[in-house]
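R.M. (postdoc): so does anyone remember the format we settled on? I'll just put the structure tokens first.
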């Protein structure tokens, strides 16, 4: 389980594709300082298991199966790319984002990036409002029922609040800190990001779809 609060930007060191999987090696400093074999680290929001590590070099390796490559944007990565990294949460710690499983539901494509409405006003230049961006993304219509205005969504592992929801798109507002410290500040129009919708919505939808006789 994760929170969607990115701990650091890591770097993809190498990718070794095979027939039905891929080995991805990532370098970091915080999240890779004390890895254990079998530990979970969210890489761009996808929960991956550490299969090899070099603590001194801050390098960890993950085996990514074909299903994960198909459902996520991990297959788009190349050596040298930046990735969002977060270690599994600790029980008893503050939950600053929202509950994130690291089970990616699909991908979204960036349609538009624009300065926020406040940022376009001359009087806010140089203030705390300067530097915000509004980002619109195309979302799979099958995921649309699970997103709500002002609800939570996880994009490339980043916990965000939805500012607009449509049948085939969503919008989020990114503060300067998010733009600086995560990959979302580096993505351009046409780029894909991993999407995990709020787990509560998925459970509610499943329960509503059940035949009452099945719940007895």
């Amino acid at each position: 389980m994760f929170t969607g609060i990115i701990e650091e930007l890591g770097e993809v060191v190498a990718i070794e594709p095979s027939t039905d999987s891929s080995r991805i090696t990532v370098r970091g400093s915080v999240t890779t300082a004390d890895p254990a074999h079998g530990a979970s680290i969210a890489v761009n929001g996808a929960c991956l298991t550490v299969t090899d590590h070099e603590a001194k070099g801050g390098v960890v390796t993950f085996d990514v199966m074909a299903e994960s490559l198909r459902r996520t944007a991990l297959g788009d990565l190349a050596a040298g790319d930046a990735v969002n990294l977060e270690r599994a949460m600790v029980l008893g710690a503050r939950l600053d984002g929202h509950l994130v499983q690291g089970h990616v539901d699909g991908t979204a494509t960036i349609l538009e990036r624009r300065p926020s409405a406040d940022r376009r006003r001359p009087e806010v230049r140089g203030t705390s409002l300067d530097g915000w961006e509004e980002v619109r993304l195309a979302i799979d219509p099958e995921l649309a029922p699970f997103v709500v205005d002002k609800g939570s969504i996880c994009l490339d592992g980043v916990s965000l609040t939805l500012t607009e929801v449509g049948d085939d798109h969503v919008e989020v507002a990114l503060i300067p800190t998010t733009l600086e410290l995560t990959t979302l500040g580096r993505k351009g129009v046409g780029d894909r990001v991993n999407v995990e919708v709020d787990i509560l919505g998925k459970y509610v939808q499943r329960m509503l779809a059940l035949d009452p006789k099945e719940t007895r």
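R.M.: ...and that's the designed sequence above, right after the tokens. Also worth knowing: The chain has three helices and twelve strands. Helices lie at 66-71, 176-181, 199-209.
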